Amino acid sequence: MNYLENLKWRYATKKFDTSKKVSYKDLEKLKKAIQLSVSSYGLQLYKVLIIENIALRESLKHFSWGQNQITDASHLIVFCNYTNVENKHIDGFIELTSKTQDIDITNLNEYGSFIKGKIKQMTQSELFNWTSKQTYLALGNLLNACADLRIDSCPMEGFESEKYNDILGLSEQGLNAAVIATIGYRSFEDYSQNRSKVRKPLNKLFQTL
Fold it and tell me: What are the structural domains of the chain?
């Protein structure tokens, strides 16, 4: 399978070639892959920022452990989860479902009420953790799509979320920087690309019951 070979090819790129940029065409493919990601109830309670501005990335680098990927990669991707879920978010999803699947919205109202009821049962902390987890599902799709297109990537948790929120004005939008990724093309100087991929053997990772 080419898919498995592409996954073997990818690695967390540490040094990007600053002269190479992801094309508009490929970037649109990556955006589509993120859009098609699974999410709980299909709500997609997150927003994805694609940051190209170098000056802005320089500011963010300071709060990203000084990692060069932030500025050297073609693009910085910031996955932002909703910090609060309101009825309007559920209503918007129900309306979109009605239009997309050509279903009378009255037939979906009960489902919308069910979702609202489940969400109301969560504490604020549980809600925040739930929405932030959704961003990782989208991140996984981005990484796999990058591998399929032979675009290098690096998922990153080494950053100060609150500082990102301040610089990007996320808090006032009800958003939080949950996880980030850089995409582009590896530099021939990146020592990491020559390392063998370390993964648990199948008989240690899986158990059939």
Answer: 2-91+122-205 (3.40.109.10)
